[in-house]
Amino acid sequence: GSYINAMLGTSIPLVYFGTAAILLFMTVNILGIKNSVKTLTGLVIFNVIVLFVFVISGLTMFNPSNFAIFLPNGTSGLIAGASIIFFAFTGFSRITTIGDEVKNPEKTIPMAIVISIIISTLLYFLIAYTAIGLVPYAKMADSTAPLS
C-alpha cells in the first residue's frame, strides 16, 4: 500500500490495500489450485519484469557519487540488511516440498535450487545497486517506500 500511495500521490489507508489483497487471494484460492498456480505464476512474472524495468531504466539515471560514503553510520545497517537478505533466500527450500510432483526430482530439484539462488542474488544485487545509485542513502532511509 505504501508504494501504491507513493506512486499515485494518494493517502489511502493501508488497511484497504490489505483487505483487498486478502479478498483477492481468498477468491483465487477458492477457485482451485489450477487458478492459484496461474495467478501466482503471473504475479511472479509481473514482479520480475517490473524489477528489471526498474533496474534498466534506473541505470540510465545512475549517480556514482551516491557510493562515495560506504557505511556512514557503521556496520549496524549492513547487519540489518544481511538479515533481510537471509530471510529472502530461505524461500528456495520450498522447492524441495514438491518432490513427489516433479519429473526426475533427483536432477530437477537441485538445479531449481541453484537457479533460484542465482536469480535471487542477481536480482537483489541489481535492485540495491540501482537504488543506491539513484537515491542518496539518507533520503532512502527516511522513506516508507524507498523504491517508489
TrEMBL record:
Record's keyword annotation contains Transmembrane helix: yes
Keyword terms of this UniProt record: Membrane, Transmembrane, Transmembrane helix, Transport
Record carries keyword Repeat: no
Major location (coarse): membrane
Gene3D superfamilies, A to Z: Amino acid/polyamine transporter I
Protein name, as recorded: Amino acid permease family protein
The species this protein was found in: mine drainage metagenome
Topological relation to the membrane, as annotated: Multi-pass membrane protein
Residues spanning the membrane: 12-33, 40-62, 68-92, 113-138
Location(s) in or outside the cell: Membrane
Gene Ontology cellular component list: membrane
GO molecular-function terms, A-Z: amino acid transmembrane transporter activity
One Pfam entry name: AA_permease_2
